[in-house]
Amino acid sequence: MNRLPNGQLQSLIAGLCGLMLLCAAPWLHAQAAPVRYAAIAFHDVVDRAEDLDADAITSDRLVAFLDWLQGNGWHPISLDDIAKAQAGDKPLPAKPILLTFDDGYASLYSRVYPLALAYRFPIVAALTGAWMEGPPDALVHYGDETVPRSHFITWDQARAMQASGLVEFASHSYNLHTSLPANPQGNPLPAASTLVMAADGSIETSEQQYARVFADLQRSRASMQKELGRVPRALVWPFGRYNANGDQAARAAGFRFALTLQPTLAALDNPLHIARFWPSHNPTLADLVATISAPPRPSPARRLVCVNPAQLWDPDPAVFDVQLGHAIERIRVLGATTAVVQTLDADRDAAKPAAAWFPAPGLPMRANALTRIAWQLRTRAGVQVVARMPYDALASAGLNPAQIEAVFASAGAQLPWDGLLLEGGDSVASQRAFMAAQASSPELQRIWLAAANADVGQPTDNPELVLYSPTQMGALLARQGALSSAQAARIGLWLEGGQALSAQALGAATREFQRRGGTAIGWCPDEALLDQPNAAQAAPAISAATFPVRF
User: Fold this and answer.
1) Spatial separation of the C-alpha atoms in residues 401 and 395, rounded to whole Å
2) CATH number of the 302-542 domain
3) How far apart are CA 284 and CA 49, in angstroms?
4) How confident is the model over 159-174, as pLDDT tens digits?
5) Which CATH number fits domain 36-174+213-291: 3.40.50.1220, 3.20.20.370, 3.40.50.740, 3.40.1010.10?
6) Using an 8 Å Cβ cutoff, are 153 and 108 in contact?
7) CA–CA distance, 107 with 47 (Å, rounded to integer)
């Protein structure tokens, strides 16, 4: 058999690639898969079920989990193991898992430490400096509660655990494990990731927030060096929340590792963003095993419902709260997974300039309401919260690209979003605007709402989700009959018109789209206070509600 010279073979393959669109095939450009490992964030450990809170686990279930790890080939690893593997000195063992315990509860010494000694498992324990101070009978401000200092370990106990060589202590900040007011309604948001609003209504600048977080991290490191004789190399973000300022402050303070609460596997090459699963509600062994063995992916059934602040806002705080609460309960009944919140006042006269629902440079503000709406949706409705950022509408309002990027950056810095929905977003200008927001909030997801004239297909920059109109989706389905599983994971159907759909119409569209392989569907408008579509009637066909532990 005659063989072509290598050069001619490569040319032939390149030509075939051009004809058959195979140039990105993995056998042509083989790349090593990133090395990943599991990390899990436990909190308190109690002996009795009646002593549980939302984040605690009972001793018997923790022991069962550790037994299972030991008997099934899992290898608990330390930060040293991660550092050596990252440097190429020693690879991670098979089935690696990082065991972490947050907050420094007294159970860390009385229950977790004896188990670490018995199993010879290394752990990382995170301490909040302000909670470690004072005598045992002192009071500590813990979340929304005031608890005795004795709820937490002492420095003497920490020193004893550290001396074992099995426990490494990380900073949980000095006093960022708290919430601070972030809007005129006084809603508290995580201190490390929010711009604080002062009593006079002024909002902390990005530079001021960086300085505040950096000073706190330095104080934490100094306190731990004084008490433990060493500076912590790892930072565990309180609530798992941080932004670009915090990221930069952690690096500047000298941390080599930073741990979050992203529910996915951790990547060896990203030590300053170590993802961790967060078990809660006393998970069973089966729950824990399933999570680390086959990490959960986003729900295959995604339901995106529009939220219009104009329907909910009222200058009377009591009325605003009632209306927001009604919308939250309705979203729970609908079984939605994602709330898509409008950032501009869509109800204003078209002749008037666009107004924002948050302080945005270059725009008038209808009311500073988005922070409260977004945080309440996330914490009470249990949904992801996505900001609808209409690039074209901002351009029509007279803002130039640089000004629009400033609006996006302001939204990313101020508001607790999980992602942004970009309208007609497959353009260089809108992508730059998204990057401006992501620079302030590094973990933002991007959803693309395709323009009416867009070709149906994946955009070149590969967002998390692409939403197409019924006409666009119909053209795609006419060509191929149904969505493949790969397409269903990345593209969805977006229903939008002048008035809300009926429950029957929304249910029928959902069932038909699912029959054709689709899993993600969203609709707008949604009349929260008028209950249109009727939530109870629509839910049996559209609900994607699940009630998992927080992995």
Assistant:
1) 8
2) 3.20.20.80
3) 13
4) 999 999 999 999 999 9
5) 3.20.20.370
6) yes
7) 10
